[in-house]
């Protein structure tokens, strides 16, 4: 039985902020995993989402509904598409959980933790500069050293929230209630 058929699909559409946040979370997963883009395509196939995302281009097109992207698409995502992207993200979060836990751990030596965060923020900033519209305020906040560090931590916490049993429901609820 495919993983996406475990829980009933939702009919609620994600608000604009939820779409932005979902794409930023997927971008964060890519920053943590150098093969994150390929992992998303593989997860999509493994989870039975080939009817929604038959190839990497279609998966990319769905992610381009984020208004912060350089290239954005105006049509919204269907609830089944957002649910599939959230399920893919949760599967990635499960896979990346040791890295997430390492970033959020207070037991690590401060210099090791600082180095990990700097590496993650650097990779995320590179991906943001490549793919996002740098004139948008939300993108500028992400790239700002002070507010970007705070936002990076929130993204990692949200990814950790999406891992484990019930991760899909927790993450979907947080995206439906995305704050500006």
List the topology elements:
Layout: H1 16-32, H2 36-46, H3 56-63, H4 79-104, H5 110-131, H6 137-143, H7 145-161, H8 167-176
Helix pairs in contact: 1-4, 1-5, 1-7, 2-4, 4-7, 4-8, 7-8
Write up what this structure looks like.
There is one protein chain. The chain is an all-alpha fold and 180 residues long. The protein has one domain. Helices cover 66% and strands 0% of the residues. The termini are far apart. It comes from Cyanobium usitatum str. Tous. This is DUF3038 domain-containing protein.
How big a fraction of the residues is strand? Answer: under 5%
The total tally of domains equals: 1
Tell me the span between the first and last alpha carbons. 37 Å
Tally of strands:
0
- What order do the SSEs take from the amino end to the carboxyl end, as H and E? HHHHHHHH
Quaternary: single chain
Largest sheet report: none
Radius of gyration: 16 Å
């Amino acid at each position: 039985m495919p993983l996406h058929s475990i829980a009933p699909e939702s009919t609620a559409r994600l608000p604009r902020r939820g779409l932005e946040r979902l794409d930023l979370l997927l971008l964060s997963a890519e920053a943590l995993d150098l093969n994150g883009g390929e992992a998303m395509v593989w997860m999509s196939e493994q989870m039975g989402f080939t009817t929604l995302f038959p190839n990497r281009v279609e998966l990319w097109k769905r992610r381009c509904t984020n208004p912060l992207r350089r290239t954005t698409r105006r049509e919204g995502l269907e609830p089944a598409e957002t649910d599939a992207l959230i399920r893919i993200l949760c599967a990635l979060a499960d896979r990346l959980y040791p890295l997430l836990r390492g970033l959020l751990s207070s037991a690590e030596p401060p210099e090791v933790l600082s180095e990990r965060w700097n590496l993650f923020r650097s990779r995320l900033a590179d991906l943001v500069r490549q793919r996002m519209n740098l004139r948008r305020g939300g993108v500028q906040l992400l790239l700002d050293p002070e507010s970007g560090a705070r936002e990076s931590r929130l993204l990692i916490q949200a990814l950790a929230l999406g891992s484990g049993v019930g991760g899909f429901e927790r993450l979907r609820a947080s995206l439906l209630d995305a704050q500006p």
